[in-house]
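Students often ask why we bother encoding 3D structure as a string. The short answer is that it lets us treat folding as translation between two languages. Here is a chain of 304 residues written in the first language.
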Amino acid sequence: MTLSELRTSKNFILAGVLLMLGGDFLFALNDAMGKWLVASFSVGQVVLIRSIGAFLILGPMIARQGPEKLWRMERPGLQLLRVITATLDTALFYAAVVYLPLADVMSFYMAGPIYVAALSHLLLGEKVGWRRWAAVLIGFCGVLIMLNPSSAAFSLPSIFALIGSISFAFVIILSRLLRGTSDTTLVTWQTVGALVVGGALAIGDWKTPGALDFGAMLLLGVVSCGAHLMITRALKLAPASTLAPLHYTLLLWAVVFGLVFFNDVPSSRILIGSGIIVLAGLFIFHRQKVVDTVPPENVASTIN
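And here it is in the second language, the structure alphabet:
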């Protein structure tokens, strides 16, 4: 590789890192806005109007790609399963933050990479060594600490967060299996699924929003869609192994936004559990980087 090519590669990686950090910030902002809105409106109503807002960004992208391409999908069964799990991920997250602090819910979602490591072995046939299996088990211990199994029963909001985080992991796995499908198509059908389910849940539980609240729900969709697109672009510019640990900045932003906007202070149980999960996840990323060599095509040579 020439000096010029090396500099270009480093520039792409830096751009990917910055986009990843920006996308995670937008996701955390989306989560804080969602928590504020579901305090006054039903989850279904927020998800419905949020999905409509996402089409302010998706609309021009669909027009550029061509609407007919939305129907030319690989493996329709997996596409449908991805829509279902993505919708569960979104709806259960908002259902959980109605009752739990933002950082608590986000801590459950930080276990996503741990679930991905386990599911990759079971569903994708990827080899997971004993060190990563040990990290997966340790990560599950962190989840159990947050669930507080010594209670008479797990709280329903915690169960929402747990199932939502597992759904999130399935979305990642299914996205790998459907990597031949364009980002526009994946995000569009994911948004359509959320729109349909949100509309169904909003029936009988509709509260007419004022202009400010309606605009905030539309903006929620714009912010969320923008975050998806930034992270998708980041993964095309830099290796996933470089970017994945940056995803844990979401937890930091969740703590900050929770303190500033909702006066939520994470409990020691949540801090200990999330700390275990983060350490286990970082070790899994490290072992993945050690075991695998990053292929050249994971670093973009051109910007589309």
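Translate back mentally: The radius of gyration is 19 Å. Keep this in mind for the problem set.
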